[in-house]
């Protein structure tokens, strides 16, 4: 017999189910999600938490005519499963499979592509205003988490929407967590609101109290309303949203479908901006995720019975190397402080936070603030290290240029997940940072080939008088090449890994290992290849560039970044300046958004593995 889930091919099929069947559907969605994610990996905790919410949304709204915008988008699995993609879901996050984030090219139900936090209210407001302009009647809904409320864009959007009184429904999915425990004063307010039955109770009390004062007849309704509001103001932390022009509804249980359906109907009637506050439990329905939601935020394949990962890294990851190195630097220098934007674990700062709690700052999902905040700390003589993923650093371009590089402040940016990140896909690939960082005046910009070099680079950065950045890949760091002689690297000097006379390969970061492998293949084809690990993207080793141009004349530049504005472009600019242009082969990623898939497979597909690199050189200079 078919399960209920097997009969649901679009939201229309949800609308005909009984309320009891909706709960059964929720159970079946969870079961299927767990089966798939335990094999493919993915964002488990957040998705398990929003199953009932997703069902209620599809039952209540007329999607895709009404518009639904998911913040971050990592919680869209139930939405995908229920909107005609149940079978494709088995290929979640795989090369050429289904993306783990909303993608309009996958389905008309995915109205907007997301991946970075705190944008949903802005986008939803744009959609709502567009509907008004077009004279269309539709509901626009944004779903965002309490973590997303730590991002400033949310307030820009609420300020705008509240002022315009645009009809818009914002669903705050409050599970008390960002990836880890949420931070900041808003989160404290939410906790109060969540815990306290005061709001409902006090509202009732005030109403009954007012009704029992004889002189308050119906004619005094307005002043009663005003008085109620002033009481509310004293009693209700949720007034923050009301003050911003939103009608606040809640908090309600986000696992109780009938209650949510009622609240959604109410929200539709209100007309202006509404914030519906639902409380959910991250990881609900799978004990390991429920008890350790942070561990199951983003996971690889795992054993469904035990919750244990199927793969453990054999070697130290770049992030672990950074984590160790920073602890050492902090031990030696009291002025070293560390900053994360809600990613302490992902960026390897958990140990730092435990060892030096007073020198550790989690600013929430607020990358722009993180950088300007670091500028302030550095102005007062500290040595801030801001650890961010490459893709999220994009948010803080201006703060880095304007507030750090311009005043030449000693802030260090640890650019983690730089390069192909793999399964998270387009929105998360760290393939633009070379392009936007290499042009920042004053910024010392490095890329370690492995863990030992990362440690030396962090030391070099923290002993440099101005701003610095080091970019490193997600996952295991390669090993085998010699470690630097000294922890203090000579600024702007590349490392020659192997001399050669017919072709030079200038490689960035761990691609130095790939270049060595490619050189071995090329040697078998009779080519003598010089391999250099550039180490510094800014300043480049101009002496080496001049030497390989003049002495070898055939140079391949190898980087894990898009071609436009990358290290290859910088080399070309340098040779143009030097007045001597060798034959050049720029090997980089295409100027495109790169979809999801295992990083290894993506490297192969986009020509960045040793086979592809050696073939490209053979095609260019031998065949
Ligand atoms: C700009 C930005 N910075 C960091 C992240 C990484 N990130 C992904 S989900 C997440 C936590 C989101 O918390 P919340 O909005 O409460 O959603 P939940 O996971 O609890 O559903 C973070 C920090 C991101 N997606 N975007």
Describe the structure.
This protein is of the alpha/beta class and 623 residues long. The protein folds into four domains: 8-196 and 237-291, 3-Layer(aba) Sandwich (Rossmann fold); 197-236; 318-471, Rossmann fold (3-Layer(aba) Sandwich), CATH 3.40.50; 495-621, Rossmann fold (3-Layer(aba) Sandwich). A seven-stranded mixed sheet has the order 7-6-8-9-11-10-15, with helices on both faces. It has a five-stranded parallel sheet with strand order 1-2-3-5-4, sandwiched between helices. Helix 7 runs parallel beside helix 8 (153-164) and helix 10 runs antiparallel to helix 11. Residues 213-235 have low confidence and may be disordered.
Summarize the helices and strands and which ones pair or pack.
Layout: H1 4-7, H2 11-15, H3 19-40, H4 44-49, H5 51-60, E1 67-70, H6 77-82, H7 120-134, E2 140-145, H8 153-164, E3 168-174, H9 185-195, H10 198-211, H11 221-235, H12 239-243, E4 247-253, H13 257-270, E5 273-279, H14 287-291, H15 318-332, E6 336-340, H16 350-355, E7 360-362, H17 367-379, E8 383-389, H18 390-393, H19 397-405, E9 412-416, H20 433-437, E10 444-446, H21 451-462, E11 468-471, E12 495-498, E13 503-507, H22 511-524, E14 529-533, E15 536-538, H23 542-552, E16 554-562, H24 567-578, E17 583-589, H25 599-605, H26 610-621
Parallel strand pairs: 1-2, 2-3, 3-5, 4-5, 6-7, 6-8, 8-9, 9-11, 10-11, 13-14, 13-16, 16-17
Antiparallel strand pairs: 10-15, 12-14
Helix pairs in contact: 5-13, 7-8, 10-11, 15-21, 17-19, 22-26, 23-24
The protein binds thiamine diphosphate (TPP).
């Amino acid at each position: 017999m078919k399960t209920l889930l097997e009969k649901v091919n679009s939201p229309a099929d949800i609308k005909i189910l009984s309320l009891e069947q909706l709960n059964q559907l929720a159970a079946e969605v969870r079961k299927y999600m767990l089966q798939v994610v335990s094999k493919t990996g993915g964002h488990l905790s957040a998705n398990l938490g929003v199953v009932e919410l997703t069902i209620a949304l599809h039952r209540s709204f007329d999607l895709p005519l009404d518009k639904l915008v998911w913040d971050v988008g990592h919680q869209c699995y139930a939405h995908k499963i229920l909107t005609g993609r149940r079978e494709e879901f088995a290929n979640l996050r795989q090369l050429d499979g289904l993306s783990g984030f909303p993608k309009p090219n996958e389905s008309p139900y995915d109205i907007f592509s997301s991946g970075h936090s705190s944008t949903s209210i802005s986008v939803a407001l744009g959609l709502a205003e567009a509907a008004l302009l077009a004279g269309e009647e539709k509901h626009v809904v944004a779903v965002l988490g309490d973590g997303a409320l730590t991002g400033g864009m949310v307030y820009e959007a609420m300020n705008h929407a509240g002022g315009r009184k645009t009809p818009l429904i914002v669903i705050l999915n409050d599970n008390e967590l960002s990836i880890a425990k949420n931070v900041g004063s808003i989160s404290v307010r939410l906790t109060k609101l969540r815990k306290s039955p005061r709001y409902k109770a006090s509202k009732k009390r005030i109403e009954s109290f007012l009704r029992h004062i004889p002189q308050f007849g119906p004619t005094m309704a307005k002043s009663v309303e005003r008085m109620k509001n002033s009481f509310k103001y004293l009693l209700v932390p949720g007034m923050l949203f009301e003050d911003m022009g939103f009608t606040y509804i809640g908090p309600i249980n986000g696992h109780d479908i009938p209650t949510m359906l009622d609240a959604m109907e109410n929200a539709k009637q209100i007309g202006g901006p509404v914030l519906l506050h639902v409380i959910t439990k991250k990881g609900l329905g799978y004990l390991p995720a429920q008890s350790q939601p942070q561990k199951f935020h983003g996971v690889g394949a795992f054993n469904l019975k035990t919750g244990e990962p199927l793969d453990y890294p054999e070697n130290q990851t770049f992030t672990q190397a950074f984590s160790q190195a920073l602890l050492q630097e902090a031990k030696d220098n009291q002025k070293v402080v560390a900053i994360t934007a809600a990613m302490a674990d992902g960026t390897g700062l958990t140990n730092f936070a435990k060892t030096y709690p007073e020198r550790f700052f989690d600013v929430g999902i607020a990358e722009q603030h993180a950088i300007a905040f670091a500028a302030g700390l550095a102005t007062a003589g500290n040595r801030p290290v801001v650890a961010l993923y490459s893709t999220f650093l994009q948010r803080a371009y201006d703060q880095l240029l304007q507030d750090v590089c311009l005043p030449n402040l000693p802030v260090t940016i640890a650019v983690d997940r730089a390069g192909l990140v793999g399964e998270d896909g387009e929105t998360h690939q760290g393939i633009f940072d070379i392009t936007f960082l290499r042009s920042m005046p004053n910024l010392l910009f490095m890329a370690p080939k492995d863990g030992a070099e990362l440690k030396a680079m962090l030391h070099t950065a923290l002993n440099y008088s101005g701003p610095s950045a080091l970019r490193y890949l997600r996952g295991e760091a390669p090993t085998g090449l010699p470690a630097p002689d000294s922890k203090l690297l000579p600024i702007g000097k590349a490392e020659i890994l192997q001399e050669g006379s017919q072709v030079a390969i200038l490689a960035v970061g761990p691609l130095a290992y790939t270049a060595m492998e490619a050189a071995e293949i090329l040697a078998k084809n009779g080519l003598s290849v010089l391999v250099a690990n550039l180490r510094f993207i800014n300043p480049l080793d101009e002496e080496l560039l001049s030497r390989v141009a003049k002495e070898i004349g055939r140079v391949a530049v190898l980087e894990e970044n898009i071609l436009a504005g990358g290290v290859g472009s910088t080399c070309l600019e340098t040779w143009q300046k030097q007045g001597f242009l060798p034959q050049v082969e720029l090997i980089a990623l295409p100027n495109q958004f790169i979809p999801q898939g295992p990083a290894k497979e993506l490297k192969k597909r986009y020509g960045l593995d040793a086979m592809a690199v050696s073939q490209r050189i053979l095609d260019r200079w031998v065949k």
